[in-house]
Design goal:
The protein has 366 residues and is an alpha/beta fold. It is built from 10 helices and 14 strands. A hairpin with a 5-residue loop joins β6 and β7.
Length: 366
């Protein structure tokens, strides 16, 4: 089937109406700009001939009913379909509290955006003839009520059945948590594993067996494209944190039936009252980076003493902003060899150690 279509991805919107904004001294993202940034991005996308829009979770600041309602109403005005899934911020507690909705209420807000069954937190739908979307829910709660990134067994069984019914289609999967590592050792590192799907191998096994090779994720707030066993995990940075990106993608099929996915990344550069948005948000992130960098330096595999960590941390104030921007290249020649090599490993390199800049603009053969 000759498939040719165009779509966009906007992730981690963290929508916050002005009266709902609450601050946290360590947050890296600027929820203050969530609505004007989304409006500008949608205004641009509405000028294009898009077939659909994907929203891979963290739609709201903290699951507030008013923020979910505002977003659903805004998406309903789009000239193209939009499809959403929940992130960890969209129902952060198992039961509703004074701020947030209950997890089972999420589908009711997004019945026009994939959730035709309001009693189920995951879904599948035909985007176009021959193209199927599977929207998964990776937000679970353990016995103590703590939120974890995982697919429960009923959802995995449902997914296995759906994949048998869509063998002759191009299947795209959308899930909030990362399925493939986007950072060195992400699955095992105490700072990185919370962004990973705990049972990612089980999901990858099902997808590989079904010939599915496109996954769209969010959560990590970085621009990155990772590949494992021929499966791509395309994660998109947050619209409310540096560099305020969104993606436009074109899938094309040539005369011989070969498919390619062209990916373009765009950024919000300026907003009313935020004329130098990237500079402001980059500084905001750098100003709040010290505790994070200390944890990274004192955690495995470096395990540096606090005295050394405090010495190196100032040189790393922009490290996470550079990671978030994608296609980063790192070298700290004044660091000791072990520390230098560790941070070099975060550069945009392939398995052979060569620099490959694919995180923002690339064409994937699928």
């Amino acid at each position: 089937m000759n498939l040719n279509f165009r779509f966009a991805v906007i992730s981690d919107l963290h929508i916050a109406l002005p009266q709902s904004i609450w601050d946290h001294p360590s947050r890296f993202h600027l929820v203050e700009i969530s609505i004007p940034a989304l409006e500008l991005a949608l205004d641009r996308l509405e000028q294009l001939d898009l077939d659909f829009l994907l929203l891979p979770g963290d739609l709201t600041q903290h699951g507030e009913p008013a923020n979910h309602t505002w977003l659903a109403n805004r998406l309903a005005k789009l000239p193209f379909p939009a499809y959403a899934i929940p992130g960890n911020h969209d129902f952060p507690t198992l039961l509703p509290d004074e701020k947030s909705i209950e997890f089972k209420d999420f589908p009711h807000y997004y019945r026009q955006f994939g959730y035709t069954n309001p009693d189920q937190l995951y879904y599948t739908c035909e985007l176009l003839p021959g193209v199927q979307l599977i929207g998964l829910n990776s937000n679970q709660f353990d016995e103590s009520g703590q939120q974890i990134g995982r697919l429960d067994e009923p959802q995995l069984a449902w997914l296995e059945q759906i994949l048998t019914e869509t063998k002759n289609k191009l299947v795209m999967v959308m899930i909030h948590h990362n399925v493939i590592e986007h950072l060195p050792g992400q699955s095992n590192h105490p700072l990185g594993q919370r962004y990973m799907l705990e049972n990612a191998p089980a999901l990858l096994k099902l997808l590989k067996a079904a010939g599915v090779n496109l996954i769209f994720t969010g959560h990590l707030h970085v621009q990155d494209i990772a590949c494992q066993d021929g499966i791509y995990d395309i994660t998109t940075g947050s619209l409310v944190s540096y560099p305020h990106p969104y993606r436009i993608l074109n899938l094309q099929t040539d005369e011989e039936g070969n498919r390619s996915l062209q990916i373009e990344s765009h950024r919000i550069e300026s907003l009313p009252d935020w004329e130098k948005l990237p500079q402001i948000s980059r500084k905001w992130m750098g100003d709040r980076s010290h505790p994070f960098m200390i944890k990274l330096l004192t955690s495995p595999p470096l395990n540096l003493p606090m005295e050394e960590a405090n010495k190196f941390a100032p040189s790393l104030r922009d490290f996470w902003a550079d990671i978030a921007g994608g296609d980063a290249q790192f070298d700290f020649p004044d660091f000791p060899p072990k520390v230098r090599r560790y941070f070099q490993s975060f550069s945009a390199t392939n398995s052979e150690g060569k620099l490959v800049f694919i995180d923002n603009h690339t064409t994937l053969v699928i």
